[in-house]
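Reply to dn_fold:

You asked what the input looked like. This is it:
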Amino acid sequence: MTTSLFEIIDKPIDVEAVRQKVLSRNAGAITVFIGTVREITNGKKTLHLEYQAYPAMAIKMFEQISKEIKEQWPQAEVAITHRVGHLGISDIAVVIAVSSPHRKVAYMANEYAIDRIKQIVPIWKKEFWEDGTEWIGDQLENVPYPKGTPSIEEEEKRD
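and this is what came back:
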């Protein structure tokens, strides 16, 4: 049974399972980035988040990020899992594991992966604060969705 390197799931992420996906006898380093839900954002107290995604396109974009990483760091292996649905404070939203023969590459490739996720992957969130809620458009918060999440057609146009 093989497990996909790239997943969008609606249950808690098993960090060790993601790490295992990139485990290799040739890896001298594995970096694991764990993105969690923080309580205070821009001075506001967050109660919880709701993540939504366009899963088929998100997986496609994870694959694109992996390809970009392989072009820069050919020996790096990447696995990405992002959670959708209701997440509470300190819950894990994303796990990125990168293995490589040397630690510097693992660190650089992992940082590259999270930056690219925020730039190109169709995942958006609704923030629930003490004083209201707001849909956050893209992960960089550059695209507003005042009426909620975008349609699949809108996401395909962004590509």
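The chain has four helices and nine strands.
Hope that clears it up.
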